[in-house]
Batch of 2 targets.
Target 1
Amino acid sequence: MNRGSRIIGYGTALPERVITNHDLAQTLDTSDTWITERTGIKERRIGGTTRALGIEAAQSALDMAGVEAKDLDAVILATTTPDRVIPATASSIQLALGARCGAFDLNAACSGFVYGLNVGHGLILAGAEKVLLIGSETLSRFVDWEDRSTAVLFGDGAGAVVLSATSAEDNALLGWALDCKGALEKSLYCDFGGFIHMDGREVFRQAVRIMVATCEHALQEARLSIEDVDLVIPHQANTRIIQSACDKLGVSEDRTVQVLSWTGNTSSASIPLALADAASNGRLAGGDIALLVGFGAGMTSGSALLRWDL
Ligand code: COA
C-alpha cells in the first residue's frame, strides 16, 4: 500500500475574555503566586461554544491548506465538552463549514487530539484523501468556579489541522501509541449536570508515568530515540508535569512547547494550540521530528511522532 498522511494546514481559535490569576484571587482563596508556581498558568481564555470555536479554528486550517470543505472526506471533532448530548457537535460544524462528508465526535478527554490524529491517519490509509481534525473545548461550563482546586486549571479554545493523503515515502506519522487505564476513572470525572472532580495529586503522579510510557512506546515503534526528537509538544496541563516527564525521558525543557501560561488546560485543544504556536513561531522547520503526547481523564494517553513538512 503506497499511502501515508501529512498535515497541510493548521488553525486556532481562542475566546476574547481573559481571566487572570489575579481575577480568580478576588473570589477564591488563592493567589497568582500559588497558581503560577504550582501549575505555570498565568491566565486562561473563557467563553463561546465548542461549535463556534471549532468552526473558527477549522476554517483557518482549511484556508491555510487551500482545501474547500466540500472536498473533505471526514470531519473528526475531538472534544470532551460537546454543546449537546445529541447530536454530535461535529454535525453542526460540518454543516456550518459546508462539508458533505461523515462527521463525528471523539471523546478521549485530553488525549483526544492525538487519538483523532491516529484515527484520521487510519481513514487516509483506508482511502480518504482529506480529513479535518479539530480539538475544541469549553471546559469553563463544567468548572465549579467556587472550587479553587480545579477552577484555576482550565480554559476554553480550539485548534485544528487538515490531513492529506500522500505517498508512503512522504508519510509524516512515523509512530504512535494509544492507551487507557480504566481503573483510574475515579481520579478525574464529571457527571451529567455536575462539575469536574479531580484528585489532583493522583492525576499528577499518573500523568508523569503514562506520558513517559506512551512516548517510549511510540519511539520504539518508529525505531527512533528521544535524541531524534526536535520538539516535544505535550498536553498543556501543568508545567511541572511536563518538566518531570521530560526529565525522565531525558529531554531538556527548551525542547518543549508550552502555551499553558496564557491558555490554561484546554483539553483536546491544547496540543493543536501548542503545535500551531510552535509552527507559526518558527520552532518547527521542514524535516523536524515532533513528539505529540497527551494524557487525560479515563485515564487515556496517546502519542504521535510526526515529521513536520510544512
Ligand atoms: N490556591 C491555593 N491553594 C490551593 C489551591 C489553589 N488554587 N488548590 C489547592 N490548594 C491547597 C490545597 O488545599 C492544599 O492545602 P493543605 O496543604 O492545607 O491541604 C495545598 O494547596 C496542596 O495541595 P495539593 O493538591 O497537594 O497541591 P499540588 O501541589 O498537588 O497542586 C494541582 C495541585 C491541582 C495543581 C496539581 O496536583 C496538579 O496539577 N495535578 C494534575 C491536575 C491536572 O493536570 N489535571 C488535568 C489532567 S488532564
Target 2
Amino acid sequence: MDFVNQTIVSFVKLLPKTIVHIFAKKYIAGETLQDAINVVKQLNSKGIFATLDVLGEAIKTKDEAIHEKEECLRVLNAISENNLKANLSIKPTSLGLSIDEEFFYQQLKEVLTKAKEFKNFVRVDMEDSPYTSATIKIFKRLQSEFDNVGIVVQAYLKRTMDDVKDLNMTKTNYRLCKGIYIEPEEIAYKNKQSIRDNFLKLLETMLQNKSYVGIATHDDYLVNGAYRIIEEMKLQKDKYEFQMLYGVTERLRDKINSDGHKIRIYVPYGKKWYAYSIRRMQENPEVAGHIAKSIFKFN
Ligand code: FDA
C-alpha cells in the first residue's frame, strides 16, 4: 500500500462510526440474522450459494466466545429452517482461540456437531499469523472426527505450500485466498505477482490431490488462471467452487455464475461490523478515498 493510501486509511479510522457505516453497508448484510437471511435468499434466487459469517472477532472473554458460538448455532438453525443454500464460516478467535485452545476446540466441536445434524458444513477462516499453527492443529484434530469441516489457507504466507503438502495427506476441503492481514516480510510474500504465482501453484497442488477447493478471489488474473487449470485438468464442476465477498466485483461474480461454475458469496452480518469494514478499506484504499471525497468534497 503506498503512502497516500496508507494515510487515507489512517484518516478513515478517525471518522465517526456513523460515517464508516455508509461505506460498510455495501459489504455487510446488516446487523441481524434476518438481514443476512434476506440477502442469502436473494443470492440463492440467482443460483448463487452463500457462506454466513457472524462478525465477532477480537472477543476477550469466554462468555463472549460462548455468546458467539450460540449465534453460530442460531445461524445453522436458520439455514435449515429457511432451506437456504448456505453454510457457515467461523473466525477462530471469535470462538475463543486466543483465550484457550482447548476451549476453542470444544466450542468448534459443538458447532460441527450441530452442523452435522443439519447435514451442513463449517469453514474455519484463517486469521493473522500468530494463529496459523494453532488453527491448523485444531482443524486437523476435528477433521479426524468430522467430515463437514474445511479450512482456509493464504497464498501470501511462505509456509503455506508446506502446510498444504501436510494437509493433503488427509483429504482436506480448502478455501484458497491471498490473505488479508498485514504480515511481516520474513514470513509473507509482498509482491503482487509472487502472491498470484503462489496462489496458482497451491491451487494446482490441491486439485492434483483431488481435494475440493473454494477458489476465493476477485482478481481476474487468478480467475482466468483457475479457468485454465480447470480446463487442463478436465475437472468436473462438483470438485471446486469460486468464492467472493459480498458487495465486491458483482459483475465478475455474475460472469462466473453464467459460465456455469458454482459460486459462493461470503455474507458477513452482525453488530461488530466496524473491524471488518476497516479491513475492507485497507484492502482497497480507493474505497476509503471515495468516502473521504464524498464527505469533504476534496479532489
Ligand atoms: P485483489 O485484492 O487484487 O482484488 C481484485 C479486484 O477486486 C480489485 O482490483 C478490486 O477491483 C476488487 N476488490 C477486491 N477487494 C475489494 C474491496 N474490498 N472493495 C472493492 N473492491 C475490491 N483472507 C484471509 O486472510 N482469511 C480468510 O479466511 C479469508 N476469507 C475469504 C473468503 C472469501 C470468500 C474471499 C473472497 C476472500 C477471503 N479472504 C480471506 C480475503 C482474501 O485473502 C483477499 O484479501 C481478498 O479476496 C482480496 O484479494 P483478491 O484475490 O480478491 O485480489
